[in-house]
Each structure stands twice: as C-alpha cells, then as structure tokens.
Amino acid sequence: MSKSTLYGILIFLVITDKTVDYNTERKVLSVRENRTKCITIIGFLYILMGFIFLRPNSAVITGNIVNSDVIQRQVQKVLIGTKNFNYYPNEIKVKANQPVSIALDSSVAGCLRSFNIKDLGVSKYAKTPIETIDFTPAKKGTFKFTCSMGMGYGNLIAE
To answer: What pTM was computed for the model?
Structure first.
C-alpha cells in the first residue's frame, strides 16, 4: 500500500470516529434533555398537587360563638380556642333541647383537644378543627366542661 492510501484510510477512520462520537454524544445529550424536561414537569405537577390538596380549608368556622336561632331546631355552632392555657371562651350559652356543635380551633392543643362534659355524657377527642363535638343538652342548667386531665375547664349554660 502506498503512503497516500494509508493516509486516506487514517483520515477516513479519524473522520468516521469523530462522526460516531459526535452522533453518540448528541443522542446522549438529547436523552439527558428529555429526562430533565420530564423530571421538571413531574416536579411541577407534584408541587401543584401539593398546593391543591394541602391548602387551608376555607370552610373552617371563624367566629367565637354563633347561635343560630332562625330555625327552631337549627344546630348551635360554637368555636372554642385557648387563652392563658385554658378554653376561650370558657362560658358558653346555648339553648336546651337544641343540637350543639362545638369545634376546637387550631390554637387548642394537647389534652385540651379531649373535650368532656361529664354531666351530659359528652366525651370526644377532636384531632382537627374540622372535627366537631356534637350533642343535644336535654335539660337546662350549668354544666362544667373540662379536658381529659381537668386542666382546661369552663361552663356550658343551657337555657
């Protein structure tokens, strides 16, 4: 073989080798770009779903005491929070023989989430502000409510 033929073969191999490397590198970059786009889209969807499912519930009760007297048997809704490590308000007035629904807001924590009115047979642990303590005071009077340990307390007055 002549020198020119060897040089030709050598140049061909060098050019072919670079072309193969260039195409392979291009394919690898394309796969990486597609993978990056896919991960970005999945991440965006994951964050979007988090905002949708973990947003605060706008249906949470927002007042302290709401007596619903418009309809005779309507539920009397009460929202209780905490102030100075005790239930607030610690005196609640409701109508006897009408349903009562008590919600403990997000400031209520620990044993105060376990709400008891012994004389009315009411005892419930409300894990979240959405959970309510529902009962109907069957008689008029003043009834003491407490937490499970007796540290938080107050009075429910059924008139």
So the answer is: 0.54
